[in-house]
C-alpha cells in the first residue's frame, strides 16, 4: 500500500489539483490573521480555523480521490492484489495531504498571526481540533469524490451543501451529538474547551468513522 500511496500523492501533485485547496487554505489563513490575534485569544482563533478549514480539507480529499480515472483505479486495484488496498491507499493519501495543510494552519500563526505565543495547553488543544477537523473533512471529501458521485457539479454541490448542513446543525441543540463545529468554537471562546474537548472530539470522530464506513461500503459497488 505504501508505494500506492506515494503514487497517488505524486499523481495529485503533478495534476496541479493540489493548488486549488492550497489557495483556499492560504486565503482563509490570510483572512483569519489579517489582524494580529491579541494575547489570550489564540485558542479561540485555532478553534475557528479548525472548524472553517473542514471545507478546505474536504476539497483536498475530493481532489486527490478524483485524480485517477476509473480505468487507472481498476489497474491500481489489480496491482495492489485486492480492491480494499487501493481504497485504503486513497484514504491514507488524502489524510497525508490534509495533515500537511493542518500543520501549516497550526504553525503559520505562531510566526505571523499571534501577538504572543500560546500556552502549551492551548497549542495542544489547537492541534487536536485541527486533527479532528481534517478527519471530518477527509470523510466529507471521500463521500463526494468521483467514485461515489460521478457528476462534478453534483459533487461540488453536495460538498458545499454538506458542509453548510454541518454548520447549521451544529448551531441547533443537537449540535453536540453531530459534528460539533459551533460548540467547540463557543467552548474555546468561553474558556471551557478543556473540559468539553473529549466529548466534542468523540462526537466528531464518531461521525467521521460513520462517513468513512459509508464510503468503504459504497466503493464495493463502484469502480
Write up this protein.
By secondary structure, this protein is an all-alpha fold. It has 10 helices and no strands. The mean pLDDT is 90.
Mean pLDDT: 90
State the helicity in percent bands. over 70%
Q: What is the chain-wise order of helices and strands? A: HHHHHHHHHH
What would you call the shape? Answer: globular
- Rg result: 18 Å
The beta-strand count equals 0
- The assigned structural class equals mainly alpha
Give me a quick take on this structure.
With 223 residues, the protein is mainly α. It contains 10 helices and no strands.
Topology:
Layout: H1 2-14, H2 19-32, H3 42-52, H4 54-66, H5 70-80, H6 83-112, H7 120-143, H8 152-171, H9 181-190, H10 193-219
Helix pairs in contact: 1-6, 2-4, 3-7, 3-9, 4-6, 4-7, 5-6, 6-7, 7-10, 9-10
Keywords:
223 residues, mainly alpha, 10 helices, 0% strand, globular
